[in-house]
Amino acid sequence: MDPIALQDLVQAVNGTLLSENIPEGLQITGAEYDTRKIRGDDVFFAFKGENSDGHRYVPKALEEGAAGAVVSEKPESPVPGKFYVLVEDTIKAFGDLARWYRSQFSIPVVGVTGSVGKTTTKDMIASVLSEKFETVKTEGNFNNHIGLPYTVLHLSHTTQAAVIEMGMNHLGEIDYLVHIAQPTIAVITNIGEAHIGILGSRENIFRAKSEIFSGLAAGGTAILNGDDDYQPMLKDDAKAGKIFDGKNPAKGFHLIFQGEGENCDYRAVDIRDDLEHEVTFTGKTPKGDIAFTVPALGRHMIYPVLTACAVGHLVGETNEEIRNGVLHYVPTKMRMETLHLPGNILVYNDTYNANPQSMKSGLHTLARTKGYRHVAVVGDMFELGDMTEELHRGIGSYVAELNRDPEHRIDALITVGEAAAFIAKEAKAQGVPDVFCCNDKEEAKVVLDDQIRKDTAFLVKASRGMALEELTKYIGETAEKE
């Protein structure tokens, strides 16, 4: 964060300065809500939640060197020489500061949202941009009303580009985030079923994701998935410059579509997704063909690559810089992370999260891995609401569909959890052999003992709350003993 004047901070958060005798010319050099990260001249934001109250930690933050604090309660014993800014809501104030701070920068900012592939797409874009620009990106899954402002507040005078991920569970959340990030380029990866249990329908998911257009800069560019079945509506929405319900006048967005379809501006052809370590394809682009080698697995990787390619062209990168940026991409841990174990055992550790689309992508990748037996270990997918049974059964049906091709099949299916049992039931009903339905991870370990053998590839995948990385670890430890 570049230094900002105390008065700018007070105005940005619409607060009241309570302190007197503050050193003249005081500059704030960072904003934190965790006392463990405080550095000298930072401002501490005292967040108040259901189970914690940051006001208890204000003295600690000041002791660690913070210049002052943003609070929603007047301090009982103010520390001399430290400032206090009183606001109604400290979390909102954090966002307000980030919104003001973002407005101080005239740089390309890419906002990324969507049901599946947000983090992969964000990381791929950042990898491509980093070939030419000093790039700030969302770290981990800091994509909510606290994490996004935190990322924005890490821009500095050396930053030349930023890639900011936007997550949501409810309508209105993207609308809030996008007005903080103020992207010049907006990306929607796809419209899937993630969070459908909260939002109720894919139409509502579409409404929530398309809120990103409400904060896209006038004359900005929207990059959309040309293969998505919601593409026509997204196209109309983007052209109109509206959220969905007619708000906001047209802003003259530029539209770019990417995918496999012939009408896509950025198109993938000659795709090889049956390789052990990588995916290769040719990208047909308005600026010529690019031969891509992607150091990650799954046919779905064409989408983040094509998106990153479009972003690279928009900001003036060459085809060679874009190709190298893709080649230097490093997959995030627990997101189709590839582990090679003794006995020629391969594990796709995709345990960070799961939804119906990403589950099918993982199973497709496993089934197309050559030279191995294929064992899928899959657990519950959360936040599917009334569609939980239907969407889990859909995964069981997809396994049966894969198994109709004798060369690309799932040799054993292990399900873990109450909802995942519907996967097992449907797979069995459609004739899939070797299906094991486990109540918990301990039962799954017993089944795995007979499946961990040489020349076997495993997919381990479920929603975050299932913590199936425990089974990934178990496979690794067992393989080491063999």
Task: Produce a short descriptive summary.
By secondary structure, the chain is of the alpha/beta class. It is built from 16 helices and 22 strands. Strands 9-10-8-11-12-13-14-15-16 form a 9-stranded mixed β-sheet, with helices on both faces. Strands 17-18-22-19-20-21 form a 6-stranded mixed β-sheet, sandwiched between helices.
Which short descriptors sum up this protein?
alpha/beta; Udp-n-acetylmuramoylalanyl-d-glutamate--2,6- Diaminopimelate Ligase, Chain: A, domain 1; UDP-N-acetylmuramoyl-L-alanine:D-glutamate ligase; Protein-Tyrosine Phosphatase, Chain A; nine-stranded mixed sheet; six-stranded mixed sheet; 16 helices; 32% helix
Radius of gyration: 24 Å
The residue fraction in helices comes out at: 25-40%
**Which homologous superfamily in CATH is the superfamily of the largest domain?**
Mur-like, catalytic domain
> Low-confidence parts lasting 5 or more residues at pLDDT below 50?
242-250
Can you offer a commentary on this structure?
By secondary structure, the protein is α/β, with parallel strands linked by helices. The chain has three domains: 4-90, Udp-n-acetylmuramoylalanyl-d-glutamate--2,6- Diaminopimelate Ligase, Chain: A, domain 1 (3-Layer(aba) Sandwich); 105-327, 3-Layer(aba) Sandwich (UDP-N-acetylmuramoyl-L-alanine:D-glutamate ligase), CATH 3.40.1190; 337-481, Protein-Tyrosine Phosphatase, Chain A (Alpha-Beta Complex). It has 16 helices and 22 strands. The protein has helices at 6-12, 58-63, 90-102, 118-129, 147-152, 173-181, 196-199, 202-209, 231-240, 302-314, 319-327, 356-367, 388-402, 421-429, 441-449, 469-481, and strands at residues 4-5, 16-17, 27-28, 30-32, 42-45, 68-71, 83-86, 109-113, 135-137, 161-165, 185-188, 221-225, 254-259, 266-272, 279-285, 288-294, 337-341, 345-350, 373-379, 412-416, 435-438, 456-461. The strands form four sheets. Strands 9-10-8-11-12-13-14-15-16 form a nine-stranded mixed beta sheet, with helices on both faces. Helix 3 packs across helix 6. It is globular.
